[in-house]
Specification:
Blueprint lengths: L2 H4 L11 H11 L1 E4 L4 H18 L4 E3 L7 E6 L2 H7 L3 H4 L7 E8 L2 E8 L2 H16 L8 E4 L5 E5 L19 E2 L2 E2 L3 H13 L4 E3 L7 H4 L7 H12 L4 E5 L4 H4 L11 H17 L5 E4 L16 H12 L5 E5 L19 H6 L10 E6 L23 E6 L15 H9 L11 H5 L9 E6 L15 H12 L5 H13 L3 H21 L37 E2 L17 H8 L9 H4 L2 E2 L10 H24 L7 H33 L11
Parallel strand pairs: 1-2, 1-3, 3-5, 7-10, 7-16, 10-11, 11-12, 12-13, 13-14, 14-15, 15-16
Antiparallel strand pairs: 4-5, 4-6, 8-9, 17-18
Helix pairs in contact: 3-6, 11-12, 16-17, 17-18, 18-21, 21-22
The chain binds 4-O-methyl-beta-D-glucopyranuronic acid (GCW).
The site of 4-O-methyl-beta-D-glucopyranuronic acid has 10 residues, from loops.
Organism: Metabacillus rhizosphaerae
Keywords: Carbohydrate metabolism, Glycosidase, Hydrolase, Polysaccharide degradation, Xylan degradation
Catalytic activity: Hydrolysis of (1->2)-alpha-D-(4-O-methyl)glucuronosyl links in the main chain of hardwood xylans
């Protein structure tokens, strides 16, 4: 009963339609494997498993071209060109992770070629073919060329060795327990399958807040275990990375400084890196959170972030390793009385001035927004401002601020807005996606990373529907042109099958869920208003007088943060003029970001025609109704979904409804008591 929850989108359900099965068997009864590697073995294993499960027959295997209906697995070389008449020109467009899927007739039999530029391409092509079959598509006339749009497609774990996960909402770590490695090879391997089935090629396996025990992950004591994990991921085309403690030379070495310009510190890191590569020859590199939220960093020594990042870059360079240096740097000891400091400005202020000063193997890692993964934020103004620095965009698949995998919040529509945002850095058309995919500026390294949302819960993600965010993240960053609708529809069909009612209803739920979550939580882009610490549920002034720089300045007259250049914090001036002007002016600032950029009176009229206060009331009443409606619609699917997954999601909708009601009443009451303005529709406000 639990298998369906565990298997996520790789259900490989048996196909009931007999003629369909015969049709697929005409192509899939044999595998011709023309190259050898661990990654190709994974492709073979996956095809065997998937085809057996869907068609009821394991394909035969041959290592030479056969006169038989076959799936042919090959990299692009002379042999395949000759044997299968592959067009050289066509394949030239494939990049290292790209692939071609081509149907053809081979000596009178139907066959399909899965051709990768490298073995990774073959694996991705195998998953693609299996997806087509699961989606019940015709596979007789395929001509598919796929190149991932982004070079780095990464996931960051925030797992601690104790087993807990910072901001984890789906149980504990699959890697660690009680400060030991779990050695849960089967589970880790299944995780690798999910990752590579959506094209993820890089993975960091420990929290960016690197505590005492985790600092030792780069020591001889623990490296053999890391190597074991890296072996599993390697067979799925995934490189393993570690988050490191910037102060390692002090913490695990015997130096008394971590000054990046100190020659002993430099030598220490070089030796350390050499040692790591003895254990893991294709080790990816480091993720570093430095001078951020009490983590050590180069500031201690009066050095800047380029000094700090380049120290590690230099050590990794001889081995081809890279450094992800996070830009989440701000003053987390702010005085709420200080109205000049604006946390939103911090990343740009710290890093813009260093553009061009980082080594070639250093990548800046930039969160999508200037604050912290809120339900609604503008796009970080660093995108487009850094023109000479490798960079990746950081999303959060874990729903820290978007319902913690209790509430449904499908994030693909949000991520698409970020990727499609035009920075105007080179005039119109300078979208975030064109910057992070390396086409706008010639970065050596670029791409997208995100905080993982999985744990050791049976269904990996707590709420089974949160699997859609994991799937959607991978699919979207592989191909940023896919629409949210396409991704959602794929996920629903792969996960729950093709019953039209289920497909229709679950798609609707996913696609509306971000808007619904926004409706009942913090309004108009202002963010926060959450319980401090764990960040679930409403607490309007929870962060208002704190040191974290997260304020909304509501009083009896109005609400919102004045971030204008004219008489606010000046944040809007960090954008290129086209955007700066839009945000600066009350007339043009989009409604959904109004309170992020402006402090307004409750009677200010939005573009929608509503006043701010009435908008708050309306959206909060509406949000609860929408959750009630989703829950009721889910209940109608009871007979169409297996009990385990049905009950799991129903439970979450019950919690979501409770949460939404709590948010509605607290927000409405807070703003009613502050403004004294009654609801036009006279609904209950306490
Ligand atoms: O979103 C915030 C989280 C912290 C996290 C930090 C970060 C890992 O609340 O838990 O720390 O961001 O991104 O470093």
């Amino acid at each position: 009963v639990w298998k369906s929850a565990y298997n996520c989108w790789l259900q490989y359900s048996d196909i009931k339609d007999h003629s369909r099965v015969q049709e697929y068997k005409k192509v899939c009864s044999n595998l011709v494997i023309l190259d050898q590697s661990a990654i190709i073995d994974s492709a073979k294993e996956e095809l065997e498993k998937g085809l057996f499960s869907m068609l009821g027959e394991t394909p035969t295997i041959s290592y030479e071209p056969q006169k038989k209906a076959s799936i042919v697995l090959a990299t692009y070389d002379q042999r395949t060109i000759k044997e299968y008449g592959v067009d050289y020109e066509d394949c030239n467009i494939l990049n290292d992770d790209g692939y071609m899927i081509q149907s053809f007739d081979y000596q009178g039999d139907k066959a399909v070629l899965l051709l990768g530029k490298t073995d990774k391409g073959i694996l991705y092509a195998a998953f693609h073919l299996l997806r087509l079959i699961q989606m019940s598509k015709d596979i007789n006339n395929l001509t598919i060329f796929e190149n991932p749009k982004n070079q780095i497609r990464m996931i960051n774990h925030w797992d601690n060795m104790l087993g807990d996960i910072e901001r984890g909402y789906s149980g504990n770590s699959i890697f660690y327990d009680q400060n030991e490695f779990t050695h849960d090879v089967d589970r880790i391997k299944d995780y690798a399958r999910y990752l590579s089935s959506v094209g993820i090629n890089s993975l960091s396996i420990n929290n960016v807040n690197v505590h005492q025990v985790e600092s030792k992950l780069i020591t001889k004591e623990l490296l053999p275990h890391v190597a074991e994990i890296a072996d599993i991921f390697r067979s799925y085309g995934i490189n393993t990375y570690l988050s490191v403690n910037y102060a390692s030379p002090i913490e695990i070495g015997d130096l008394n400084t971590a000054d990046p310009l100190d020659s002993e510190v430099q030598a220490w890191w070089s030796e350390k890196v050499a040692e790591i590569y003895e254990y893991i020859p294709d080790f990816g590199g480091f993720i570093v959170k430095a001078d951020s939220e009490h983590r050590p960093g180069p500031f201690t020594y009066g050095r800047n972030h380029a000094d700090g990042a380049n120290l590690l870059g230099r050590a990794l360079e001889p081995f081809g390793g890279i450094v992800f240096w996070r830009c989440f740097v701000y003053d987390c000891l702010q005085d709420w009385r200080d109205r000049k400091t604006d946390r939103a400005k911090a990343a740009y202020d710290h890093f813009k001035q260093l553009d061009g000063e980082f080594l070639d193997n250093v990548i800046l890692q930039i969160k999508n927004g200037p604050m912290d993964f809120q339900v609604r934020e503008p796009v970080s103004p660093l995108f487009g401002s850094l023109k000479q620095t490798n960079q990746v965009l950081e999303f959060q698949v874990a729903q820290e601020y978007t319902g913690q995998q209790k509430d449904l919040c499908f994030l693909v529509p949000q991520w698409k807005e970020v990727l499609d945002f035009d920075t105007y850095s080179e005039g119109k058309g300078s979208t975030v996606k064109s910057i992070v995919n390396g086409s706008k500026y010639p970065f050596q390294y670029s791409g997208i990373t995100a905080v993982s949302n999985i744990g050791n819960d049976l269904n990996w993600t707590g709420n089974t529907l949160a699997q859609a965010n994991f799937y959607g993240y991978g699919r979207l960053i592989w191909d940023t042109e896919l629409s949210a609708e396409e991704i959602s529809d794929e996920w629903v069909r792969l996960t729950f099958g093709h019953d039209e009612q289920v497909v229709e209803e679950v798609n609707q739920m996913l696609l509306n869920s971000w808007q619904i979550y926004e409706n009942y939580t913090s309004p108009l882009g202002v963010g926060w208003m959450i319980n401090p610490g764990h960040h679930y549920g409403p607490n309007i002034e929870g962060y208002e007088y704190s040191k974290w720089g997260t304020y909304h300045f509501s009083d009896c007259l109005g609400t919102g943060v004045n971030r204008t250049v004219k008489n606010g914090t000046g944040y809007s001036g960090q954008y290129y003029p086209e955007n700066a002007e839009i945000y600066e002016s009350l007339e043009t600032c989009p409604d959904e970001l109004l309170l992020f950029f402006h402090h307004v009176s409750y009677t200010h009229r939005l573009k929608s025609g509503e006043t701010v206060i009435q908008h708050i009331y309306n959206t909060h009443f509406l949000g609860v109704e929408q959750v009630e409606n989703m829950k009721a619609r889910w209940e109608q699917l009871k007979d169409k979904i297996d009990t385990y997954r049905y009950e799991n999601v129903l439970d979450r909708f019950t919690m979501q409804l409770e949460n939404a009601i709590e948010w509605r009443d607290r927000i409405n009451t807070y703003f009613y008591r502050h403004s004294g303005i009654p609801d036009e529709k006279k609904r209950t406000i306490y």
